[in-house]
Amino acid sequence: MENTYIYKQQKKLRCGYTTGTCAAAASMAAAAMLLGEEAVEQVSVETPGGVRFLLSVEEIRRASGWVSCAVRKDGGDDPDVTHGMQICARVGVAPPEPETPGGWYEYENGGLTLKIKGGVGIGLVTKAGLSCEVGKHAINPVPRDMIFKHVERVCTGRDFAGTLWIVIFAPEGEARALDTFNSRLGIRGGISILGTTGIVEPMSEAALLATIRLDIRQQAAGGPGTLVLTPGNYGETFVRERLGLDLDRAVKCSNYIGASIDMAVEEGIREVLLVGHAGKLVKVAAGIMNTHSSVADGRMEILAAHGAACGAGPELVEQILESITVDQALEYMEQVPGLGQAVMDRVIRRMDGCLRRRAGKAMKIEAVVFTNARGLLGRTKGADGLIEKIKAGG
């Protein structure tokens, strides 16, 4: 593998690559061997994050009409539960027999059709509300697109037209999944194939907090005293595409919302616009300022409590509590006209109070809350004014 590094606090840290990158690499290699190459020892994968990895191929197996192989997951200097495990792909000209459970994801372009599903060790989605359909395997949208893109490239290079059937599997997946939140999310029987950038950046807490502080300090030194805080990639996309703000003014704070507010105050920032997905920011309405799921969740309990306060009956409250995502909870609330918006208005008022208490009198803070499926869910009273001020360079 060609190593990729980042620097945090003057330390050189090696990046890893996601299970999605592994799946794309294994699929590409298997497709190449199926369509004529003798043996593929390494494969070059381009990630959405702009980094290209040269990955080693293992466990090559061939039979009539199909080839399988594996790529080993590497978490870099921030290994997680999937570090070191094999992510495998079987690519064939026909579906495997006997057929495994779960539906197929499909891609068509001209005369080419590609179908993807999970096999052994890849979790099956059993509850609504995730980015994968119920009854299909937990192969998230970005990894699916990576697999389709890389296999299509192989097919185009070999003038192949027809259908290929791709099964992603992980021999250790079911055992490793016991140390994840998958069962709680309704993903049964294995791991998820994940990744939004294809890259795993080392994120030790001390290094990450130091990086956040440095970013805030640079904004304070070079800017007009206003700052956009966002927990992650989804927030950055919303800031740029929906709010029309320059990401040069933004700092990614990960799950450390409270600590980032503290640092903004300490570095002399006068105004902060916090923009985040409701899956993170709903927690802030209960005073949860580190939104990592290993620290605290409470999203559905918060929504259920506010739902009950807005008139939701016991059955609906129970449905909210059983929801997997905020979007799913809001969908249940649609049974009562206007309830979802009333609940979000209450949540945002409570969130506003928690944020203001944390910031104190020295700094103004406003918030914008969204989900990918529903777009803008709400904002604090002064958010629109602060957005316009930031656009104007203030």
Descriptive account of the structure:
This is Cobalt-precorrin-5B C(1)-methyltransferase. GO terms for molecular function: methyltransferase activity. Keywords: Cobalamin biosynthesis, Methyltransferase, S-adenosyl-L-methionine, Transferase. Its EC number is 2.1.1.195. With 394 residues, this protein is α+β, with helices and mostly antiparallel strands. The chain has 2 domains: 5-200, CbiD-like (2-Layer Sandwich); 205-391, no CATH class. Helix content is 36%, strand content 24%. The chain has helices spanning 19-34, 141-157, 173-177, 182-185, 205-222, 233-241, 257-266, 278-281, 299-309, 314-321, 326-333, 339-359, 383-391, and strands at 5-8, 11-14, 16-17, 42-46, 52-56, 58-63, 66-72, 86-92, 105-109, 112-118, 124-125, 162-169, 187-188, 199-200, 226-230, 250-252, 271-277, 364-371, 375-379. Helix 1 packs parallel to helix 2, helix 9 (299-309) packs across helix 12 and helix 10 (314-321) runs antiparallel to helix 11. The longest helix has 21 residues, at 339-359. The radius of gyration is 23 Å and the shape is globular.
